[in-house]
Each structure stands twice: as C-alpha cells, then as structure tokens.
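Re: that chain you flagged

S.,

Sorry for the slow reply, it's been a week of failed gels. I finally had a moment to sit down with the sequence you sent. For the record, here it is as I used it:
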Amino acid sequence: MTMINVRRTWIAVAIALATVLPNAAEEQASPLVTDVGIDRSALPAAVDTVDGVTPLFRDGRVFIAGQPSQGALTTLHGLGVTAVVNLRTPAEMEDRQRVPYDEAAAVAALGMEYVRIPLGGDEHPYTPEAVDRLAEVLTDHRGPVLVHCTVGWRASYLWVAYLIREQGFVLADALARGKAMALSPDPLEGLLGRPLVVVYDGEPSP
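Prediction finished late last night. Pasting the structure tokens below so you have them in one place:
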C-alpha cells in the first residue's frame, strides 16, 4: 500500500483539535482517564432504533449524531442520555427552517444538560479547548451523552480528537473509529486510486 503524507482540511481538523498530544511512549490511557465504556476490539455501532436523527452511532456510552428532532431527543433521554453536546453554530440553530424547534428549551424540559461547543467558521475555530470542554462533560456525566452537529461530521472529528487526547488512542486507530461513523473518505483517494495515510506534521511517513 502506498502511503502519502497529505495535509488537507479534513485531516487538519482532527489534528488541530488534538494539538496537545502525548508522545509515543505515553499514548496509553492513564488510570485517571474517564471511563467512556469503549470496546477497543469493535468499531462504533450504527443505531437505527431512534427515529428523527440521521446518522446515529454509539461508541461506548457516547452517541455521535446528526441533528436530532425533538422526538429523537425524547427517545434518547429514554435511553439514558443525560447531556446533549451541540456543535452547531448559533446562526445554524437560530434558523428555524433548518431546526424547527428550540433545542435548548427541549433539552432543559427533559431534564438533561445542554452544552454548546460551536465549531465552524472564523468565529468558531477548531481548537483544543473544544476537546477540553467535551472531556469535562464526559467526566461530569457518567451515563450516556449525545454529541451532535448537522450530519455527524464535526461530531465525529471531535470524538476522534477526544480519543487521542483523553483516551490514549494512536492517530490511526482513532481515525478508523471516525471513518466508521461520519468521516467521509478523502476524494483524492478515489481520484488517485491510492489510499492515503495521515501522519502528524513533522513525523516521517511510516
């Protein structure tokens, strides 16, 4: 398999989120790492039993999703979700053609915590602080947590960065979990007919 070191936007997102990384000798979860119930021998599973949200995946006790409907939030609450982390920007959420209900109010009415970590555009860049905030939520909430954006793309990248930063995953393994959810293949792979492998900037290709 030919390996190419490619620095493209979709790759840079995860690396930007996970800027503060352990070195190779430290890439193991410490005893103080929050238990998120991940089975490292299995990839995230698609969930098709909740109407009103597409896509929806579960990795351990974390749901990764696109925009949920109000009914989907009720169903997820019934599945034990205690916190909803929304990565969409304020402008997106205020557009009632895109989101025809007040998500913050709906979440509050169900007794769940609502956390905004907006990502996207110059006003809401991808930074390690987003990973820090997600880590806080997962530490505070020991039950299932929903992380969503529009179609699961931003949520998948944030989850990948979290796995690297907070759970000791190596880059390749974390990206494999993201690709099993909502990370789309780089178009260059199809155009070149060759697989691409991501490495950190400054590291030699494997």
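What I noticed first: Strands lie at 45-46, 56-59, 62-65, 83-86, 113-116, 145-148.

Talk soon,
D.
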